[in-house]
Amino acid sequence: MPARSVLEVGFGRASLWNSWKTTGRLADDIDVRVLIARSGGVTAALAVADLVTLWPATCLRLRDKVAAALGISPTTVGIFTTQNHGAEVEGEGVADHDLVDAAFVQAARQALENLMPVEMARVAVHPQPPLAFCRRVPFGDLGKFTFWYGFRLAAEGRPDYSLLLKKALARLSRGEPYQYRCPFGPGQQPGEEDAVPQSPVPVPEPLYLSPAQDNLLQGLFFRTPDGRPVGSLLRYAAHPNAANRRGADWHSGDYPAYLRRRSEQIFGGSAIFMTGPCGDQATPVAEKSLALAEEIGRQLADTACAALASASWQAGGRVAVESPEVVLRIRPDLPVSVEAAKQACAEYETRLKAAAAAGRPLAEIKRLSDQWERQIGIGFNQFQAWCGLDLAGRGGQPFVWPLFVMRIGEAVIAGLPGEPFGGYSRRLREETLGDALITAEECNGYLSYLPTAAEFELGGYGSNASIVDRTAEDTIVKILSGAVAAI
Q1: Is the pLDDT of residue 2 over 60?
Q2: pLDDT, tens digit, for every residue of 266-316?
Q3: Which whole number is the average pLDDT over 237-262?
Q4: Contact, 279 vs 465, CB < 8 A?
Q5: Of 51, 8, 27, residue with least CA distance to 261
C-alpha cells in the first residue's frame, strides 16, 4: 500500500476593519482568513472574508492577487464571504479596494509562511437543540412567506412565527406591496411594530419553524504530528444576522467571530469559518444582540470540539482542486429596463390596492405581491447593488461562473455561488460523499439567491429575489458532483 502524501496546512488572517467608511466601532473581529493546504506538489487556498457580499468582479480580482502572491494558479484559489450582516455590502460601503486587496494578500502570505506538516481529524454533528431553521413557511394556498428574525422563542429555542405571519397577512390585506419579513423591515411605516395586527384569517398559535434541511455542523481540525494544535475549519449553514441590531453603534463579525474565538480557546491554533448554503435558513433570533451572537458561536464551537473527542486522526492525505465553470441562465421574467420595471411595479401596486379594497382572496393578492417583488431587483437597482451586475434586458441569457472544489485528505469543500437554499447541501451530500462533503456559499462572488427547483415558484423573499432560473439546481449539482468525483 503506497505511503500517504505529507499534508501541510497553514492559516493566516488580516483585519478588514477600516476598509469602509463608518462612524461605528468594531465590537469583535471582522477579518479575512486564509487556509492553504499543500500535498504531493499541489497547493490550494481558500480565503473567507467577514463581509456580507463581494461582487463577482471583485472576487475575480482578489483571486488573481492572492494567486500571484502565492505563486499559484488563480484556479486553485477560492474566494468566499461569511455573509456577515454586521459589515457593509460592497455597493454601499466597501469602497477602498486597495485596503481590501492588501488584507487578502497579507493573510495569504501569512498562511503560506505558516505551512507545516499536519494530521487531520474530521467531525460532523447535528447540534441539539438545532440552531438552524427553515425561515420560509407555507400558509394555505398563499405559497410561502420568508421571515428573517423577531420570532417568539418557546422551550429549547423553538421559534414561533405566528405573530410574524399575522403581520404579513395584515399587510397583504391592506394591499401593501412589500411582504412583511421582520420587525423594522422594508416598506414598514413608523409605529407599525407597536400595533397588534388584526389578521384577516385565523392563524394558529403557536406555529413553529421547521428544522433546516441543512443543520449539519462540520469541522476539520489540524495538529502537528507531535500533537500541537495548528487550527480548525468550521462550517454551519445559518445567516450571521444575530448582532446587526438596527441603530447599534457597532459592527460585528457576528456568531462566526465568536465561534472562531471559542474554537481557538478550546482546541488552539487559528480558526476559519465558512457559511453553508442558507438562503432559506436562519438562527432562531428573537432580538438581535452581541450577547446572542456570542452565545450562538459558543454553542457551535463547543459542539464541534466535543465531537472531536471521538474523531480519528489521520496522518497525511491528498490535496486536489478543481475550478469547474457552470453555465447558469438568468431568470426569463426580468424586466427589459429599469423604466419598464418601475412601470410594472406601479401597475402591480395599483392592482394590489384595488384587489385589497375589493376584498379579493388573499391568494390572489399574494400572487400580485410576488409579481411586484420580482420587479424590484431591476426597478430598485437591487441586483446592481448586490452583485455589481446590470441584468436589465438579459432575461433568459446564459452566463458562465467559476466554482471551486478543494480536497483536503478525505474531506472535500465544494463552493457554490451566491446564496443557495439548504436543499442544495442535502442533495449534494446524498449524491456524493455524505458528511465528508463540506458545502459553502458565496463562492467567487454574490449572485443573489439560488432557490431549489421545488421552491422557485412558491413566492416569498428568496425565490422572488433570485436572478437565476429554475434549472440552476440541477445544473450546479451536476457540475459539482462531477468535480467532487474527479478529485
Answers
A1: no
A2: 999 999 999 999 999 999 999 999 999 999 999 999 999 999 999 999 999
A3: 96
A4: no
A5: 27
Rounded Cα distance between 258 and 440, Å, is 19
Identify whether 102 is part of a domain.
yes
Buried b (16+ CB within 10 A) or exposed e, 401-435: bbbbbbbbbebbbbbbbbbbbbbbbbbbbeebbee
* Cα–Cα distance, 304 to 266 (Å, whole number): 10
Q: Which residues contact 128 (CB under 8 A, 6 or more apart)?
A: none
Cis peptide, bond prior to residue 256, ω within 30 of zero: no
Name the percent of the chain lying above pLDDT 90: 91
Residue 182: inside a domain, yes or no? Answer: no
Q: Is residue 164 part of a domain?
A: no
Q: What is the mean pLDDT of residues 474-479?
A: 98
CA distance 168 to 139: 11
CA dihedral angle for residue 220, residue 225, residue 231, residue 234, rounded to 10 degrees: 10
Please state, in angstroms and rounded to a whole number, the distance separating the CA atoms of residues 215 and 217.
Answer: 7
Cell numbers found for residue 431: 449524491
Residue 452 covered by a domain: yes
Q: Report the candidate in 4, 9, 484 with the shortest Cα–Cα distance to residue 232.
A: 9
Question: Cα dist. 109→12, 70, 483 in Å?
Answer: 7, 7, 27
Q: What is the pLDDT of residues 164-178, one digit of tens each?
A: 999 999 999 999 999
pLDDT band at 1 (very low <50, low <70, confident <90, very high): very low
Predicted confidence (pLDDT) per residue in 447-463, tens digit: 999 999 999 999 999 99
Instruction: Name which of 417, 410, 405, 413 is nearest 445 in CA terms.
Output: 417
Q: How far is CA 238 from CA 277, 293, 400, 431, in A?
A: 8, 12, 27, 22
Q: Are 32 and 107 in contact (CB under 8 A)?
A: yes
pLDDT of residue 443: 98
Q: What is the pLDDT of residue 88?
A: 80
Burial of 126 (C-beta count, 10 Å sphere; 0-12/13-18/19+): middle
User: Which residue has 425565490 as its cell numbers?
Assistant: 463
Which of 16, 34, 14 has the alpha carbon at shortest distance from 76?
34
CB 218 within 8 A of CB 440: no
Which grid cell sits at 357?
A: 379594497
The tally of domains found in the chain comes to: 1
d(CA 91, CA 443) in angstroms, rounded, equals 18
**Residue % of the chain over a pLDDT of 70:** 97
Between CA 432 and CA 142 the distance in angstroms is 35
Tell me what the mean pLDDT of segment 323-351 comes to: 96
Residue 320's domain spans which residues?
Answer: 8-126+217-324+399-486
